[in-house]
Inverse folding.
């Protein structure tokens, strides 16, 4: 029970594809199994409702709220609803994020660029902005944002890369600024994960069969396999738990050694 009685918000707690296991859902299930009181948030309800159903099916209580993290009012209301339900907020785990393959910089679509930065950078800022007053008053808290190896590797996801690399530094600033309040802020830098959204995105983009995409992605990490949603959830759980009580400002690769290739 590593999160016993901790109140945790998980954003992006649904998943874009119905089948398989996404990072948000696996994190919700993992946190609940370790005793956390959960507030799930997602911009659409059916998939979040399914996550809540799976959490309840294991015998745990859970609250949920429709919220678009790029909307400031929604972020404000998410914090208000959580404190109303549970009286405090110990953990903000922001899982929301997604990218699209853009190709060449000369072809960037401005609307798509802005949308990507809103989701992957502005949303995490708004969530942090509205949770901080509560955590500062408590003199404790833990914020984890979800980034990607795309932030440091050369991949043709340009807006996503720009947004996630800025997210890494934004979160390091959060850690510096809020250390004196006993608030820890860290980044999970995920590698090639076998989640339904990622595989589907590359399938739509390349036309390659899903199994072929999985085979190609599995070749790149030094450990010879993709990660999965449970790997992401385990790292999120570690950072949220007291085992990480002295870890803040960290950008932690969860990538099976993929980024060890940089410079090698
Ligand atoms: N899967 C990978 O290979 C991989 C690699 C690196 C990083 N990541 C990161 O992992 C996270 C997502 O994991 P996934 O691919 O399993 O997720 P997913 O897409 O299955 O789930 C994300 C959820 O976020 C919700 N969402 C999207 N925009 C939202 C918004 N504005 N407000 C509220 N909810 C919103 C979606 O409805 C969906 O339910 C992202 O931050 C992504 O950048 C994934």
């Amino acid at each position: 029970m590593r999160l016993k009685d901790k109140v945790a918000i998980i954003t992006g707690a649904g998943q874009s594809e119905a089948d398989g296991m996404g990072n948000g859902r696996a994190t919700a299930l993992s946190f609940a199994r370790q005793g956390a009181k959960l507030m799930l948030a997602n911009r659409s309800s059916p998939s979040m409702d399914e996550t809540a159903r799976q959490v309840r099916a294991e015998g745990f209580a859970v609250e949920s709220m429709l919220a678009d993290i790029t909307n400031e009012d929604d972020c404000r209301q998410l914090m208000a609803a959580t404190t109303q339900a549970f009286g405090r907020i110990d953990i903000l785990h922001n899982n929301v994020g997604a990218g699209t393959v853009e190709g060449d910089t000369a072809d960037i679509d401005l609307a798509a660029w802005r949308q990507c930065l809103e989701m992957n950078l502005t949303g995490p800022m708004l969530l942090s902005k509205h949770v901080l007053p509560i955590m500062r008053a408590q003199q404790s808290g833990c914020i984890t944002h979800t980034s990607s190896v795309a932030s440091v590797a050369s991949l043709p996801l340009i807006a996503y890369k720009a947004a996630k690399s800025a997210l890494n530094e934004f979160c390091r600033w959060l850690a510096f600024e809020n250390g004196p309040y006993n608030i820890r802020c860290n980044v999970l830098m995920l590698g090639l994960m076998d989640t339904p959204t990622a595989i589907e995105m590359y399938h739509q983009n390349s036309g390659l069969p899903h199994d072929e995409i999985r085979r190609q992605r599995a070749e790149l990490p030094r450990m010879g396999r993709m990660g999965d949603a449970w790997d992401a959830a385990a790292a999120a759980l570690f950072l949220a738990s007291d085992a990480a009580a002295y870890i803040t400002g960290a950008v932690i690769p969860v990538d099976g050694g993929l980024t060890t290739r940089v410079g090698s």
Notes: The chain has a mean pLDDT of 96. The longest strand covers residues 141-148. The longest helix spans residues 110-138.
